[in-house]
Amino acid sequence: MANYSVRNQVAIISLCSPPVNALSSDVRRGILDSLKKAEQDVKVAAIVICGEGRTFCVGADITEFKSEFKTFPNLFELVDILESSPKPIVAAIHGHAFGGGLEVALACHYRVALSSAKLALPEVKLGILPGAGGTQRLPRLIGIDSSMQWIAFGDEYSAQIAANIGIIDRIFPSNADILESAVQYAQSIIGKSLINRRVSKLPVKDASKVSHIMEKYKQIVGKKSRGAIAPMVCLEAIKHAALLPYVEGMKKERMGIEALMGSDQSKSLIYMFFAERQVRNWTIPGTGINSKNTKPIKVEKVAVIGLGTMGRGIVLSLLKAGIKHVSVMELNKTARENGLLFIKNILEGYAARGTISETQKRSMVDALKPVSNFEMLKDTDLVIEAVFESMSIKKDIFAKLGQVCKPSAVLATNTSALDVDEIAMVTPKPKQVVGMHFFAPAHVMKLLENVRGSKSSPQVIATAMNMGQRMGKVTVLVGNCHGFVGNRMFRHYTVETDFMLEEGAYPEQVDTVLKKFGFAMGRYQVGDLSGNDIGYRMRTKFEMTNKQQPPGAPERER
Ligand SMILES: CCCCCC/C=C/CC(=O)SCCNC(=O)CCNC(=O)[C@H](O)C(C)(C)COP(=O)(O)OP(=O)(O)OC[C@H]1O[C@@H](n2cnc3c(N)ncnc32)[C@H](O)[C@@H]1OP(=O)(O)O
């Protein structure tokens, strides 16, 4: 839905569809009806489109994709109607202008934004392309090169970056009133010609270089998005913006979206989008305890024990999450020095690439606190143990943590398969113990499996879940069983690939096929990265007939 009002010659069309103002058929209809009112009202000289609540607009309503093409106006039609309005339209952006939301803004004649706003055309992450003129308007505004960067990878950009390259006309401070600022801006452009403000009418500045730019992005996409169809279709559609008039380019864009919408890849990515959100709503089966009724413990000081492959990545994830005090404990001098050097080098790399500023890098390095004994962890809020996958070593560490840590401290183990309850029992407060199973490399991989022990308290679970979300991880709560969920799934995959080795394939041949199929890494590369010894230990424990597993051994042991 959209609300309509008029203030000092400016009509205000405010999208009102909580929580994120997705462009459902009702919202599109509401915009169109309001636009007609504004166009017919002789007292209205300019129009502002804004979003109510936390955001401008996150794009098409993904839940309505199936009927997207059927209802009038679809997004594709709406953007052209907006752009051809005889009265100037200003998009007032706060929060997010994503996907169709940004396409609506591109169809407006001016765009203003709060400095805190984020912009993106992330459709490629749903296996589709920006199907409402995004592939045709963006190149006319910022050129082919930048458009390919924005559209083929779907990343979000700050309003400031968008202003630097010409998408945003005016930035307001993050604490400004976006509507008030936009109305004033709209008043300042009343009476100005719209000739150069209709983006579809603009030429594409770097059109002559399209073949060269296309080749460059084909190479990058081929490497970065191996196996994905949508990025290549996006590049093709953008190429047409350089080669064809707008109307013809739009026909090509339409062919692209029709081919991608409903494809297996798109269906899977959309499933993943909703699944990633669904897991935030965790629950403890049969108890009524859930994410809505349980508060996490406040976590300011975190410690990581062990600076091997996993510990380093976990430390980096915590630093990136903005934790200002990260104690690191590694008793082996060489491992400690190597680990700290690795962390600092990665932070240097982020700063060099502009992912973080120099100031952020310095504050992350300052947050690192090497510690040499357990006593120094006594006021830590959350300890994440990430040492060698051995029950006896972990029990030894948790017994010590149980003695020195404050009673409210959450004690987490990064075990990938061991029994969290067995580890918890060596501490005086097993309810404080939980599993936090990261995947290597932990600063890159988005999945975090939090393991609920039989004694873990709801607050402790909420704290682990909250910390995972603070780190930007897709955080899933799972039960305590051998291999939890991730490794139980992975096991079936490894069994099949191992059969292939038995049948004569080399590990690198198996990996090559998997990577060609689209996997980021081959199965045997993953083994090398995580350590094949971990798999060996897990298999030994898994074995139903080995000495440790007499007949009748409990299910979790099997
Ligand atoms: C004939 C031509 C037809 C063309 C049609 C095709 C054109 C498509 C163009 C598009 O616009 S496709 C959609 C592009 N937009 C996106 O992909 C954005 C998706 N959303 C996000 O990435 C995030 O929501 C956000 C914008 C970064 C905000 O993140 P935040 O963490 O703040 O909120 P969430 O928890 O993710 O979302 C809250 C709530 O809203 C639901 N939701 C978000 N986006 C959409 C959406 N586009 N459609 C429907 N629902 C959406 C989300 O599922 C959450 O719901 P919940 O029930 O609270 O879990």
TrEMBL record:
Residues 301-480 form the 3-hydroxyacyl-CoA dehydrogenase NAD binding domain. Its EC number is 1.1.1.35, 4.2.1.17, 5.3.3.8. It catalyses: a (3E)-enoyl-CoA = a 4-saturated (2E)-enoyl-CoA; (3S)-hydroxydecanoyl-CoA = (2E)-decenoyl-CoA + H2O; a 4-saturated-(3S)-3-hydroxyacyl-CoA = a (3E)-enoyl-CoA + H2O; (2E)-hexadecenedioyl-CoA + H2O = (3S)-hydroxyhexadecanedioyl-CoA. InterPro entries: 3-OHacyl-CoA_DH_NAD-bd, 3HC_DH_C, 6-PGluconate_DH-like_C_sf, ClpP/crotonase-like_dom_sf, Enoyl-CoA_hyd/isom_CS, Enoyl-CoA_hydra/iso, NAD(P)-bd_dom_sf. The keyword Lyase applies. PROSITE patterns: ENOYL_COA_HYDRATASE (PS00166). Keywords: Fatty acid metabolism, Isomerase, Lipid metabolism, Lyase, Multifunctional enzyme, NAD, Oxidoreductase, Peroxisome. Pathway: Lipid metabolism; fatty acid beta-oxidation. Residues 483-548 form the 3-hydroxyacyl-CoA dehydrogenase C-terminal domain. It is found in: Peroxisome. Monomer. In the N-terminal section; belongs to the enoyl-CoA hydratase/isomerase family. Belongs to the enoyl-CoA hydratase/isomerase family. PANTHER family: 3-HYDROXYACYL-COA DEHYROGENASE, PEROXISOMAL BIFUNCTIONAL ENZYME. This is Peroxisomal bifunctional enzyme. It comes from Clavelina lepadiformis.
